[in-house]
């Protein structure tokens, strides 16, 4: 570990909050015996540190943080990657995909996938099929959550295709993400969401259906 990364880690450790760490463990469903360290740092503080050091870190230093066993170090590494994405999108995407196994919790996925994967690829690119078929649950969630970048542009097809594909998946983490993205579709075009629900609601997992319907009128 370089002097820069050591100093960054020390800053984050100085911001540790045991009570928040305990809360975050429950929120993120990180088991005590998982080996994952949770400091309980607040995201605004991590962003401030990122602004100071983002430009100084090498790809290897970013990877040291991303591959650590500390949740906040991984969050910080992803913040740096997001910050540097516009200036160097191809290398950041490559770094992200090559190390996707370390983006292994819903918060890490949700903070990074829309801006890095959704910000780089087109909705018709093969990468989404590859991620959706990956045996890694978090790769599947990356594919789904990244579609919010297209939903904002009025492009709903990929979201609907993935939601249909993931109805038979066994993880509630993916069902929640799918329902969330369907809800986002509904915010922009209620008829598109209603048409999807008319066709698939009976077969949808309950949590996916509940998330998808949260913004719909009761009637």
Description:
This protein has 219 residues and is mainly alpha-helical. The protein folds into two domains: 1-102, no CATH class; 121-219, Alpha Horseshoe (Leucine-rich Repeat Variant). Helix content is 68%, strand content 0%. Helix 5 (71-85) packs parallel to helix 7 and helix 12 packs across helix 13 (190-200). The relative contact order is 0.08.
Provide the fold topology.
Layout: H1 3-14, H2 18-28, H3 43-53, H4 59-66, H5 71-85, H6 89-98, H7 106-120, H8 127-133, H9 137-146, H10 148-151, H11 157-166, H12 172-188, H13 190-200, H14 206-213
What is the succession of H and E elements? HHHHHHHHHHHHHH
Low-confidence runs (pLDDT<50, min 5 residues)?
Answer: none
Total beta-strand segments:
0
Mean pLDDT figure: 95
Q: Indicate the structural class.
A: mainly alpha
Q: How many discrete domains?
A: 2
How far do the termini sit from each other?
58 Å
Number of helices: 14
Based on CA atoms alone, the radius of gyration comes out at: 18 Å
Principal-axis shape equals: globular
Beta-strand content estimate: under 5%
Helix content: 55-70%
Largest sheet: none
Give the gist of this structure:
The protein has helices spanning 3-14, 18-28, 43-53, 59-66, 71-85, 89-98, 106-120, 127-133, 137-146, 148-151, 157-166, 172-188, 190-200, 206-213. The chain has 219 residues and is an all-alpha fold.
């Amino acid at each position: 570990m370089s002097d820069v990364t050591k100093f960054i880690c020390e800053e984050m450790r100085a911001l540790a909050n045991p009570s928040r760490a305990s809360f975050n463990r429950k929120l993120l469903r990180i088991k005590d015996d998982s080996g994952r360290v949770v400091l309980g740092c607040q995201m605004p503080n991590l962003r401030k540190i990122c602004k100071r050091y983002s430009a100084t870190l090498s790809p290897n230093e970013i990877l040291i943080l991303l591959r650590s066993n500390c949740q906040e170090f991984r969050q910080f590494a992803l913040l740096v990657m997001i910050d540097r994405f516009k200036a160097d999108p191809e290398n950041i995407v490559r770094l992200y995909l090559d190390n996707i196994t370390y983006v292994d919790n819903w918060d890490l996925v949700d903070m990074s996938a829309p801006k890095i994967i959704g910000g780089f690829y087109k909705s018709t690119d093969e990468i989404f099929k590859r991620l959706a078929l990956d045996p890694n649950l978090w790769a599947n969630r990356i594919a789904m959550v990244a579609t919010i970048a297209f939903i904002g542009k009025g492009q709903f097809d990929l979201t609907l295709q993935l939601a249909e594909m993931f109805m038979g998946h066994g993880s509630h983490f993916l069902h929640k993400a799918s329902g969330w993205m369907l809800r986002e579709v509904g915010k922009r075009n209620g008829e598109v969401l209603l048409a999807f629900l008319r066709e698939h609601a009976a077969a949808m997992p309950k949590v996916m259906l509940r998330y998808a319907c949260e913004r719909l009128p009761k009637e």
